[in-house]
Design goal:
This protein is an alpha/beta fold. The protein is built from 4 helices and 3 strands. It has one domain: 3-Layer(aba) Sandwich (Rossmann fold), CATH 3.40.50.620. Strands 1-2-3 form a 3-stranded parallel sheet, sandwiched between helices. Strand 1, helix 1 and strand 2 form a beta-alpha-beta unit. The relative contact order is 0.20.
């Protein structure tokens, strides 16, 4: 089976469970480039009706520290159309910044 070129996940990344981390690590093994989008505090509060335990910087650092993650970016919306555009732009930026 061929690996995907690019894969990603999005989330809050506050309290990452062992099961969630295992899923991410499995996904990382099945692609060449893996990115993580982290929702801003405002999106978490306003759109998901909960409060993050840690601030955005700490949550992004948590995502960056997962072995195999190539890029991490913030998500300031939960709108699917806007998310698609942000993810596309961030992935393109990573690829262009890392051309050999």
């Amino acid at each position: 089976m061929n690996k995907k070129k690019l894969d990603f996940c999005i989330g809050i990344f506050d309290n990452l469970t062992d099961r969630g981390l295992a899923k991410i690590k499995d996904d990382i093994q099945n692609c060449e480039i893996y990115g993580i989008g982290v929702y801003t505090d405002e999106v978490v509060t306003n759109d998901f009706y909960t409060y993050p335990v840690n601030n955005l910087e700490k949550r992004m650092e948590t995502a960056k520290n997962i072995e195999g993650v190539k890029f991490v970016f913030k998500l300031d919306t939960s709108d699917p159309v806007k998310l698609k555009e942000i993810i596309k732009n961030e992935a393109t930026k990573y690829i262009n910044d890392n051309k050999k």
